[in-house]
Amino acid sequence: MILITGASGQLASQIATGAKRLGLTAMTASRSPDADRRMDFDRPETLDFTGIETLFLTSAGYAEDDVVMRRHGAVLDAARAQGVKHVIYTSLSHSGDHLGFALAHRWTEREIQASGLRWTILRNGLYAELIGALVAPRDGRIAVPFGHGRISAVARADLAQAALSVLAAPERHTGRCYDLTGTHAFSAAEIASRIGAPYLPTDFATERAGLEGLPLLPFQPPMLMSIASSATAGFLETQETDLEALVAAPRDPLEIACAIAMSGL
Fold first, then answer.
1. For the chain, which residues make up each domain, given as ranges?
2. At 243, is the secondary structure helix, strand, or coil?
3. What is d(CA 221, CA 212) in angstroms, rounded to the nearest whole number?
4. Which residue, 151, 155, 158, 167, is CA-closest to 244?
5. How do residues 10-40 score in pLDDT, each as one tens digit?
6. In whole angstroms, what is the distance from residue 36 CA to residue 38 CA?
7. Could you tell me where the DSSP H helices lie in 114-250?
8. Which helix (H) or strand (E) holds 123?
């Protein structure tokens, strides 16, 4: 039996739907009442892995580092105690090491590898959909300070397909880390050219001040600023990816990012 956590999220919901389509014996878990098992990573007493052999752990990264590490640690403790055999984890690509949310991912990878369980780590790149949303024009221009650095973003649907390739035969992927970035990097300037909007990025101070005025959670402004600074510094491009080892025909991430960015025009 497979259990897919975070099933109310966009990535995990695609994986759960795909698993059923493939005829895999899979269940979902989340805080949503629609999940097969109600689980709250902040309440360890709700972590029920009875009868689960393969746990697909979708990162609970929507929080500060200490919160995410506490959540993931509780899940791993419960999984090991309740007989789970294999953990598949959605981590962050190697090119994301400079991002403000990388720490909890690397900590979780280390804990999984030391857990005694079989494991597979899917190091997902930034979603092309996210980049498209971040660069969506403001007042007719793209203003996000991404410099001219290129980003190896990847379509969310491709990450779901990669996950399904592993879930279809987990034993074949034991002990593997897959770096799942896009096959073609692109810049904010390329998006601007493609959609016909001027690229006139603000400076970091202006962007930071703008974020402070939005209704964001405390961890979100530094997270978003780290994407901008990493892009500007050129750290979000990679020349190597394992995506094509798991996905036969990856989608064009630039096309997907542009489609999302167009909504701002």
1. 2-264
2. helix
3. 7
4. 158
5. 999 999 999 999 999 999 999 888 889 999 9
6. 7
7. 128-134, 156-167, 188-195, 204-212, 220-232, 243-246
8. strand 118-124
Q: How large a percentage of the chain has pLDDT more than 90?
A: 92
The SS3 call for residue 134 is helix
- Is residue 183 within 8 A of residue 38, CB to CB? The reply is no
240: how many CB neighbours lie within 10 A of its CB?
10
Quick: pLDDT tens for 204-244. Answer: 999 999 999 899 999 999 999 999 999 999 999 999 999 99
Both tokens of residue 237?
């491009």
* Spatial distance between the Cα atoms of 124 and 159, rounded to a whole number of angstroms: 7
- Report how far residue 68's alpha carbon sits from residue 2's, in angstroms, rounded to the nearest whole number: 22
pTM, rounded to two decimals: 0.94
Partners of 142 in beta bridges:
199
Nearest to 197 by CA among 125, 256, 116, 143: 143
Sign of CA dihedral 190, 191, 197, 201: negative
pLDDT of 251 above 80: yes
Are the CB atoms for 68 and 59 separated by under 8 Å?
Answer: yes
Q: Where are the alpha helices (DSSP H) in 22-89?
A: 65-81
Residue 12 backbone zone (phi > 0: left; psi -120 to 50: alpha; other: beta): alpha
194-217 in b/e form (b: 16+ CB < 10 A) is bbebebebbeeeebbeebeeeeee
Q: Out of 3.40.50.2000, 3.40.50.620, 3.30.2350.10, 3.40.50.720, which CATH number does the structure's domain 2-264 have?
A: 3.40.50.720
For residue 124, which phi and psi values (nearest 5 degrees)? Answer: -80, 140
pLDDT tens sequence across 76-102: 999 999 999 999 999 999 999 999 999
Q: What is the identity of the amino acid at 106?
A: R
